[in-house]
Design a protein that fits this description.
The complex is a heterodimer of chains A (81) and B (555).
Chain A (H helix, E strand, L loop, with lengths): L2 H16 L19 H15 L5 H6 L3 H13 L2
Chain B lengths: L2 E5 L6 H7 L6 E2 L5 H6 L4 H4 L4 E5 L2 H5 L9 H21 L4 E5 L12 H4 L4 H18 L3 E4 L1 H8 L1 H4 L2 H7 L5 H18 L6 E4 L10 H4 L10 H18 L3 E7 L2 H10 L10 E7 L3 H12 L6 E4 L3 H10 L15 H13 L7 H4 L1 H17 L3 H8 L2 E6 L5 H10 L12 H9 L3 E10 L2 E14 L2 E9 L8 H15 L4 E6 L11 H4 L3 E5 L5 E6 H13 L1
Parallel strand pairs in B: 1-2, 1-3, 3-4, 4-5, 6-7, 6-9, 7-8, 13-14
Antiparallel strand pairs in B: 10-11, 11-12, 12-13, 14-16, 15-16
The chains are: A mainly alpha (81), B alpha/beta (555).
Amino acid sequence: MIREKILAEVIAIIVDLFEEEKNLKDSVELSTIKNFDSLGRLNLFMALEQCFVIRFTIDEILSAKSIEDLVDMIVLKEKSK
Amino acid sequence: MNVSVLSNVNMDSLKSHLKKVGVEHPYFCGYNQYLIELLDRNSFIHKNVQEYIFIHLDGEELLKNQYFSIPRKEDLLSDLEELLSSLRTYIHQFPHASIILSTIVFPPFSFISYLDTNSPISYSQIEHELNAKLDSFSIEQTNVIRLDFNRLVKLYGYNALVDDKYWYLGRIKYTNLAFSLIAEELKNLIHAFEGKTKKVLVLDLDNTLWGGILGEDGLNGINLSEEGVGKIYRDFQKIIHSLKGIGILLVINSKNNESDVCEAFDKIALMVLKYDDFIVKKINWQNKVQNMKEIAGELNLGLSSFVFIDDSPVERALVKESLQEVEVPEFPSDITMLKKWFLSEVVYKYFGKVRLTTEDLNKTEQYVRNTQRNDLANSTLEISEFLKTLKIELIVSENDLNIKARLAQLSQKTNQFNLTTRRYQEVDLELFMECGTCVVYGLEYADKFGNEGIVGAAIIKCTQQVAFIDTFLLSCRVLGRNVEFSFLYKIIQDLNSKGITKILGEYLATDKNQVVKNFYADCGLTEMESGKMGNGKYEGEIDLVLNRLSVKCRG
């Protein structure tokens, strides 16, 4: 899956989950997203795992800081499929 | 819909999934605080009116350290009894809350390995006993229903629904898939509980009810057998036949020659369904949308009660676009999926049932008799003459707890002849029947064609010498036979004998109950106040109402 498509899907999931209305780009820090908290982080990773049929490690879940980090991780996992 | 979620694990992730199925602001109790929530008089569910309380207990968390040692059944049953006892107290205090109890599912693996099924030390046995205890509790309490989480685990697999990673990170036990399935199941279950499920299954024939195209392949080309692909269709017919047995009305909407179809039903020995199993048959070459509208007219039911099954994507699209009220599920492209798809995607979603009434079991026969009555009406010139030939018998019951399930079903489902459309559950009716100042009347109908069962309900609230008609409704099956006037007449007579002198009535307009807009005026009550949207408040002296109704009944 190409990076742009992954980015679009990740943003769609974030918008759906957090009802974020601002224009999201890959540079956006996760902590600045509306309603984002520690539970929201877990919910986000759960939704990403289901959408892309991948599995994140605990380190990956805890270390991701931005949308770009998420997309990078997914791109890597998609390549190794 | 107002839902609270109580659990021994973190269920907050369910929130976004519940929103997708129409539950806007669910409440979640704190992690593992479900007992405190139930017992504490200052907790959210004590301070706020609850419609539904969903209690989900995770099996492994319920076991606690017993998952890592030989399990002690008595301790676990005693823990569960503590919950049930708290629930009994809560239900006693808040009888209007409906409780949804999830089945308990233990992990399918443990350190005792094969001992589980080969020795008295068994997690599976304990799991079974805990769930049996919950089953008994839900039978004992009318407003407690079960959500079968175990069914979802069987369907999708334990590993797809349970993930320890999020448990160690945030006490979340389930996957995103599990939460979406639980939310969907909750929605469908509540619909079934409230009687909002569909009534009519409309079926295509060729490549839907049997393999092959009758008009092209002929009788011998029809695939219906006990082997191979033909068995798929035969099994499908068996399920549909069983649905008819629990009150689902079957209808054919097919492009075919009617005589060919009759011959197929008559001559194909392995046909499970019979021609007469279908309450209406639209077998012709006209547009299926037009057929659908005619079926709705003949059954006197709204299109929103219909589910349409057709293998043709073109026909499905046409019906879907033209009649948005009709549910048109996708048909499986792989026909071997037919049985599994129909049961899991159609039956649970559209035809789910939580309780079964006598009326459900006789539904098709009741509609057949209605068709016979309509035929008689059409052949009779005078309506009064027609009604006399019917030999109608009405039995009015008073505060009869034995029929509360049927009265609740009528209250939940009746839209047209319903003056106030107030929806009541069994527990509400029980309270009305036992409060001492209310009278709940039920109406049983029979005529020369047969017994229709309980078709009407009325709830009267009395204050000294004044009676307020809170609810007055009649199933659309018996409309047009002046039954409504006779029912009210009998009620008013009874109230008269109880010393009531004045009757108050109310009409609350909805999109569907325009047919009863002038009912109280026709019965001799005077409109005292007309509100917004056509609502009205009525009153009448009991003698005047009785006189008017006796004239109406004679007419």
